[in-house]
């Protein structure tokens, strides 16, 4: 893979959140793992897997989305409320799911 910013003369080192040219040091965007998918040295995906590992499938799917939206709410959109509203929608779904599960056990 060659650097798009230095006319392909550099060697590219693939990182988790960016691709950096070893020749000129310029960053290039990694479309697979953009920077809002990582907090510090932790990939959001890895954190989500750790959190939901023992949850039932339906709960795991919902909790995954809650974490995803809350963790990036200030980084993806101009209006931070966009991802907060999405997280809220999933939180309400989780609440309703837990209420339904409790009712089914009674």
Describe this structure in words.
There is one protein chain. The protein is α+β, with helices and mostly antiparallel strands. The protein folds into 2 domains: 1-33; 37-105, no CATH class. 46% of the residues lie in helices and 13% in strands. The chain is built from 3 helices and 5 strands. Strands 1-2-3 form a 3-stranded antiparallel sheet, with no helix packed on it. The chain has a two-stranded antiparallel ribbon with strand order 4-5. Helix 2 (57-71) packs antiparallel against helix 3. The longest helix is centred in the last third of the chain and has 25 residues, at 81-105. It is flat, with a radius of gyration of 19 Å. Mean pLDDT is 78; it is low at 9-17.
Query: What is the N-to-C order of secondary-structure elements (H for helix, E for strand)?
Result: EEEEEHHH
Helix content: 40-55%
**C-alpha-based Rg, rounded:** 19 Å
Shape field: flat
Task: Name the poorly predicted regions.
Answer: 9-17
- How many domains? The number is 2
Mean pLDDT: 78
What is the straight-line distance between the termini?
59 Å
**What kind of sheet is the major sheet?**
3 strands, antiparallel
Supply the number of helical segments. 3
Strand content bin:
5-15%
Structural class: alpha+beta
Distinctive features:
106 residues, alpha+beta, 2 domains, 3-stranded antiparallel sheet, two-stranded antiparallel sheet
């Amino acid at each position: 893979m060659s650097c798009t910013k230095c006319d392909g003369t550099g060697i590219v080192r693939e990182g988790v959140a960016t691709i950096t040219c070893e020749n000129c040091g310029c960053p290039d965007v990694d479309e697979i793992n953009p920077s809002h998918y990582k907090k510090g040295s932790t990939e959001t995906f890895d954190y989500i897997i750790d959190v939901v590992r023992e949850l039932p499938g339906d709960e795991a799917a919902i909790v995954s989305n809650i974490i995803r939206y809350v963790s990036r709410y200030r980084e993806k959109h101009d209006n931070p409320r966009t991802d907060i509203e999405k997280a809220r929608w999933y939180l309400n779904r989780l609440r309703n799911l837990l209420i339904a599960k409790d009712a089914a056990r009674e």
